[in-house]
Amino acid sequence: MELIDLTLIWVGIVSFAIFMYVIMDGFDLGVGILFPFAPGDQARDDMMNSVAPVWDGNETWLILGGAGLLAAFPLMYAVMLPALYIGVFLMLAGLIFRGVAFEFRFKARGNRHLWDYSFNLGSTVAAFAQGAVVGAYIQGFNTENMQYVGGAFDWLTPFTVMTGLGVVVGYALLGVTWTIIKTEGEVQAWAYRLAPKLLATLMLFFLIVSIWTPLAHERVMARWLDNLGVLWIFPVLTLIVAATALRALMQRKEVVPFLCTLLIFALFLLGMAISKWPYAVPPTYTFHEAASDPGSQLFLLLGFLFVIPIVLGYTAWTYWVFRGKVSGKTGYGH
To answer: Whole-model pTM above 0.85?
Structure first.
C-alpha cells in the first residue's frame, strides 16, 4: 500500500463529493433564493415542482463529503468545526427550514405566502453560510498544537460576507438557468430576462475575489505570480465561459447557460484548490498532516467505493425519470 497515496485519493473523493453537492444542490437553493422575484404563484409552483423530485437526493452529496472529511481528515474537523460552529449551524438550520417549508407550502391554504418567505429565507441563509465557510477556509484559521484558538466569530469578516453574497448570486444564477430548462412560457421568459443580470453580478464578485484574495494572502499571491505562465488560463477560461453563457441566453438556448454556469463554479473551485494546495487547514496543516491512519483510510475507502456508484446510479435514474418540462397542473402537491 506504500505505492498508493491514500491521502491523495481521499482528497479526490472529498473534492468530488463537495463539487457534486455544489452543482446539484446549488440550483435548487437558487430556486428558493429567486422565489420572491418570481412572476406569480403559478410561477412559484412551477419552480418548486422543477426541483421537488431531486432536491433531497442532491443533499446526499453533502453527507458524503462531510463523512469523508471526518473519516479521512479528522484534523480538519477538529479545527474547522469549532471555528465554524455558528456558520455550520446557520447552514444546517437553513437547509432544515427550507425542507420544512417545502412540505408545508403545498398543504397550506390561507398562509401559503408565509411558507414562500420561509423557503426563500432558508435557501438564502444556507447559501450565504456556505459561501462564508468557503471564505473562512480561504482566509485561514488560528491554531496551536492542532487546536483552534480563535474566537467564535473570527470567521465573520468583510471577506467572508463578500464570498457569502457571491455564492448567493451564483446559486441564483444556477437556479434561474435551471428554470429556463424546466419551464416554458411566461416563467421561462422571466428567467431569460433575469439571467444576464445575475451573470454580470457573479462576474463582478469573481473579479473582486480574484483581486482581494492574493492581496490579502501573500502565499496565494506568490503561488499565482510564480506560476502565472500556466495559471492565467483559469481567469481567461472563466471569461470565455461567461461570454458563451451570455450569448446562449441571447439566442434563447435552454441547456447551454446552465452548463456554462456549472463550468464557472468548477473553474472557481479549481482555482481555489490551486491557491490553497496543499493545505487542509490553512495556513498551517497540509492534507497529509491532517490525514487519519492509512488503515482507517483504506477501510473507509472500500465502503465509499461501494456507496458512490450507487448514489451516482440512483441520481442519474431520478433525473432521467423526471426529465422534461414541468406542468402547471401536475407535480408535487397535486
So the answer is: yes
